[in-house]
Amino acid sequence: MSKRNANAPRAGYTAAVERPTPDRAISGRGLLGLLLTLLLPPVGLMMLWHQGIFRARGRMLLTGIATLEMMALFVVLTPHQELTARLPVPAAPPQVTAAPEGETLNALYNIEQLLYEQQLAEVLEAGGSANDLLTEEEKLEAQNAQNEAAYETIVYSVFNNAVYYHASKVCRTQTNGRELTVRDALREGMQPCPYCNPATVTH
């Protein structure tokens, strides 16, 4: 039996069909891509997929591992702070300066005074008076104050059988020598003089 030619194709394979060679060890480029995927996942994954290192299944496996690694790093490196509940404390802004109490009251009074003067001008223009701006309670208080002032007004009368009290000591041709208040004159049944118009009380 003759020795087989070394250059002749082996049994089952022709010259046009190359026999598959056993898997080779990981190349330097593949090793670099693996290290970058583990150490710098974004750079390594871009290199694996851009240059087509390893088969598709291997690239997908390394992509999953790198994704889990990045998630773990994110969880570990994220700072954790404990939240403490704080009740809000009302405070004025530092730029705001509280106005003195006197100035505040003056400002409010000025505003009220301007509003009153505006309303009074409208009422007077319509033919009314200042009393039209008063409430019923304010009108009653004003009338009571006016009556109280009238009660204490000094008037004059004659000493005997006086029917009227007068605004002055001399009324027309009559001399009134007695001095008294309107309150006293009304208690004695006197009436205001129809000529000199002394102080009267409104009921």
The number of helical segments is 6
Indicate the structural class: mainly alpha
Instruction: Give the terminus-to-terminus CA distance.
Output: 160 Å
Q: Main sheet, how many strands, which sense, barrel?
A: 2 strands, antiparallel
Q: Give the overall average pLDDT.
A: 77
Strand % is 5-15%
Based on DSSP secondary structure assignment, what is the total number of beta strands?
Answer: 6
Output the keywords:
203 residues, mainly alpha, two-stranded antiparallel sheet, two-stranded parallel sheet, 6 helices, disordered N terminus
Please characterize this protein's 3D structure.
This protein is mostly helical. Among the domains are: 28-77, no CATH class; 130-203, no CATH class. The chain is built from 6 helices and 6 strands. The strands form 3 sheets. A two-stranded antiparallel sheet has the order 1-5. A hairpin with a 2-residue loop joins strand 3 (170-171) and strand 4 (174-175). Helix 2 (41-51) runs antiparallel to helix 3. The longest helix has 25 residues, at 101-125. The termini are far apart.
Short description:
With 203 residues, the protein is mainly alpha-helical. The chain has 6 helices and 6 strands. Among the domains are: 28-77, no CATH class; 130-203, no CATH class.
